[in-house]
Amino acid sequence: MAKNTTSYICTSCGTVHKKWAGRCENCGEWNTITEDAGTGSAAPKALGKSRGRTVELTDLSAEEAPLPRQLSGLDELDRVLGGGLVPASATLVGGDPGIGKSTLLLQAAGAYARSGAGVVYVSGEEAAAQVRMRGQRLGLADAPVKLAAETNLRDILTTLEAERPRLAIIDSIQTMWADHVDSAPGSVSQVRAAAHELVSFAKRRGVSVMLVGHVTKEGQIAGPRVVEHMVDTVLYFEGERGHPFRILRAVKNRFGPADEIGVFEMTGAGLAEVANPSALFLSERGQASGSVVFAGIEGTRPVLCEIQALVAPSPLATPRRTVVGWDSGRLAMILAVLEARAGIGFGGMDVYLNVAGGLRVGEPAADLAVATALVSARQDHALPEGTVVFGEISLSGALRPVPQAEARLREAAKLGFNRALMPGGTRRTGPDPIAVDTLDDLPGFVESVF
Ligand code: TYD
Ligand code: MG
């Protein structure tokens, strides 16, 4: 007889715990662990009656020919997906409430529908009339998108079975409700069950699904992370409140490069694509100490952005280290290397680091730009105008070359920069489009710059 055990599950990351705790050991979030009714039935004891079918790898071409990828015409979205929507794929679009997920997906629905694909947009949050109103405001009044306001999963699957669209958008997965699961809508079991049903429907019927997932702060509603492992592609829609810029980032993609970004601007008439993000991220830049332009690579594109540092005497016993848009552990490392290898100390000082424009930089290639910004702020000495910086820093204080130097230099040249600071030994062929200062170790770099 099956034992009736209660388990506890983290609504943020989906980790199962034996006991309730205030903080999840896996993801470190507080108050996210809830009791889980559990749907797990006992493992099957006997073999099934019917056989699963296998296909020779070499015979795959003989199977029904795979459909080509579908382009939406929204270039930023197509690129983040890895070159268009893959048929029968499952995509999760996560993001904070109010960031613009529904707007993005309704625009995507309109674009796909206009390019000839059948699209069903299921909203569990708004009535069909409200979605239509929003669509009109976005200039999609004539797009042949089919709308449904529904939360019952069984009904949705029946609709999709009848319609057999090329793309089904589910907004949002947290509002979906599977009647074979006991727990409340939004719980981890419900969200997982709904995602599982929708993803297996997608694979079985050749319908692509896009699931919207709200990033939640309170513990009762499951976050998008609990379904990340079930889908092929995970996109996060990010941006800062008060800023119109939005970044769509692929954090997982079975069909394309991860870390690819698409940049949008939220306007009165919906999201507008930003074709030249470098110009956008640098548009509000002033020439001051602590400001450095980093020549980065996001996915397959070079993107220039401004890194700002502020260093000020601290009244606190433990000075503040505040980071926006970069890893705080990495900042601690750079501060330690500057102190130990170049003798530039930050003890007794508050350090603030910010990547302008709401971008999140993950590349180690930003090390040198961060170090330069910190030194520039610390010495109150601005970098010469028209300079870009990139390179990795090792714990020994040596600078390491980073890949794709040429693409970075070309992008910098295109935006009017005329000088680059980078590690010596950086591989590049052909003439440099701008003057290049190669540096080899940290104290030497500090001297050469300031
Ligand atoms: P929405 O797509 O509803 O967010 P989400 O689905 O992620 O919760 O977007 C909500 C915000 O976007 C709202 O604050 C208003 C803004 N917005 C515009 O600025 N312009 C527009 O054309 C639209 C439709 C929304
Ligand atoms: Mg929404």
UniProtKB/TrEMBL annotation:
InterPro entries: AAA+_ATPase, DNA_repair_RadA, P-loop_NTPase, RecA_ATP-bd, Ribosomal_Su5_D2-typ_SF, Ribsml_uS5_D2-typ_fold_subgr, Rubredoxin_2. Keywords: ATP-binding, DNA damage, DNA repair, DNA-binding, Hydrolase, Metal-binding, Nucleotide-binding, Stress response, Zinc, Zinc-finger. Residues 350-450 are annotated as: Lon-protease-like. One of its GO terms (cellular component) is cytosol. Residues 66-215 form the RecA family profile domain. ATP binds at residues 95-102. This is DNA repair protein RadA. The lineage of its organism: Bacteria, Pseudomonadati, Pseudomonadota, Alphaproteobacteria, Rhodobacterales.
